[in-house]
Amino acid sequence: MKLKIGDNVVVITGKDKGQVGKIKTIFKNKNTVVVTGLNLKTKHLKSTNKEDPGKILNIDAPIHQSNIMLCDLDNIKIRFKIIMRDGSKVRISKKTGQSIN
């Protein structure tokens, strides 16, 4: 997986198409990520005792990695470049050519 926690991503399919968010959690075994503020699901909680009322919570649900695209702050696509000196990969913005790491 080419994504890291804290990366900016754009949703490319689904109900949140075109929205930008940051990666909060990555599940590598299922190839899914949780993006803050996107793909919200409602969860209803019952009251545990008489003083505590029930709640309705909005929870961030996971999105498959094929439905998101890594991007820069300005929704610019990113490419990878291999540095010949040490053989390491660097993520670079396609438009500006600046390193993102």
Count of DSSP-assigned helices: 0
Low-confidence stretches: none
CATH architecture tag of the largest domain = Roll
Number of structural units classed as domains: 2
- In helices, the fraction of residues equals under 10%
Task: Find the count of extended strands (DSSP E, 2+ residues).
Answer: 9
Shape: elongated
- Spell the H/E element sequence: EEEEEEEEE
User: Regarding CATH, which class of the largest domain?
Assistant: Mainly Beta
Mean pLDDT over the residues: 87
Give the strand line-up of the largest sheet.
Answer: 6-3-2-1-7
Portion in beta strands: 35-45%
Reported by name, the CATH topology of the largest domain is SH3 type barrels
Helix/strand class: mainly beta
Major sheet size, sense and barrel closure:
5 strands, antiparallel
Radius of gyration: 18 Å
Q: What is the distance, rounded to the nearest whole angstrom, between the alpha carbons of the first and last residues?
A: 16 Å
